[in-house]
Design brief:
Outer membrane phospholipase (ompla), Chain C; about 240 residues; alpha+beta; about 50% strand; elongated
Amino acid sequence: MTRMIAFALLSATALSTPVMAESLGEREFSFDAGLGVKYSPEFIGSDNLDPSPWFILRNADADRDKPDGFSVLPSLNYVGKRDADDYDDLRGMDDIGYAGEIGVKLSYRMGELTSYGAIRKGFGGHHGVVGELGAKYRFEASDKLTLWTGAELGMGSDDFTGTYFGVTADESLSSGHRAYDPDGGAYIARLSVEARYEFLPDTALMGRVTYGRLLGDAGDSPLVETRNQPSISIGVARRLNFRF
């Protein structure tokens, strides 16, 4: 499944890039970058929320003055570390370090609706391939306030799901959890509402509420305390603009 997803996204990227090059003279790339706090599950599958930094790097494809059509953007993400000794239910499991993810995102914009697909390769805490397929709708409440609603499906390779939802034979002996080897595929579905309020020129207060639901083998993992995975984030970001 991972190879099929990668082939589809990369093929679409190859087809769309020449169109973008012909339609744009001077190209502009802009995005929001900032910092905030996020309340989310302590680890993937936890039923307790815990504060953590929210590194804001988003909305590169959401400008009101962007033209309709395809765009190709970088896709970046990080996953926090998981120290087994910090959680009673994970004692005996191996620790997982911080993970970075880097890849590409292909978006198609039609009016206020943007659909997208992203694929990334992990390094550090996991070395799997992950990605999302989704759509979001933009609503301009005022010149300063922009709202988005979105839905997406998160997917991961066997390496990714095995890292965060699997239990090896050795971990089973030390933790008491049954051994578990999950398959890759769709592992979470998410619904979200996001707001951006520009209280100063190119400076905005950002907020996001997300409800996630673990699916399939990921949701069946003995490490999962609840399939429901809500989060709430708030922070301040600066709009960065580049022309080339």
